[in-house]
Amino acid sequence: MIKVLLLDDEALVRSGIRMILESDPEIRVVAEAGDGEGVAELVERHRPDVVLTDIQMPRVDGLEVTRVVAAGPGAPQVVVLTTFDLDEYVHTALRHGATGFLLKDTPPRDLVRAVHLVKRGEAMLAPSITRRLLAHFAAGEAVQGAKTRLEVLTPREREVAVAVAHGSSNAAIAAALGLSEATVKVHVGRIMSKVDATNRTQVAILVHDAGLA
After folding, report:
1. What number of other Cβ atoms are within 10 A of residue 98's Cβ?
2. What would the pLDDT profile of 76-121 be if each residue is shown by its tens digit?
3. N or C: which end of the chain has fewer CB within 10 A?
4. Confidence (pTM)
5. How far does the chain reach from its first CA to its final CA, in angstroms?
6. Do 35 and 104 sit in the same domain of this protein?
7. pLDDT for the residue numbered 167
8. Is residue 88 located within the same domain as residue 185?
9. Whole domain around residue 47: which residue ranges?
């Protein structure tokens, strides 16, 4: 039997969620509340396996509930269920220790499945949130990859590369750095060779990806 503690400030919503969860004979809602205040005591008293909490509640919201529950001894898994999929909510909830983040339009079967998954220690995220997180991490990998490729440049070459990313001509770069145009041209050629770029545009994109311009 999977024991669930349910927190939501709307009684009608709690009733609906309870019906959905308890349609599965392996799930039982052992307690519920309309606010996160006193959640540590509820967890201590009822020993739930999963805490299912709304985010926006009076006094103590679901993000604080997640932090408090996850920090406790023998902590149950926390699933955040909300109308809002704002990135700030998602990131805060996951940092605080939530193992699930679902929207309230989640199909009933997926809500039941989420409870089973998090009980086993697995994660369950709404598809839209998963896509955004993957995009976020992919962007992070792109930034790191660009920085790694630029590490081979000398300090002077890096200055020239940043100037190229700003759209400066060889003449403008030469004037700004106190170099001859010929020297700048040599630097640009070396930069393209070192970072495996075929033109100035690719150098500019790489510099931008690395966050240097």
Report:
1. 28
2. 999 998 886 666 777 788 778 888 888 888 899 999 999 998 898 7
3. N
4. 0.62
5. 56
6. yes
7. 83
8. no
9. 2-127
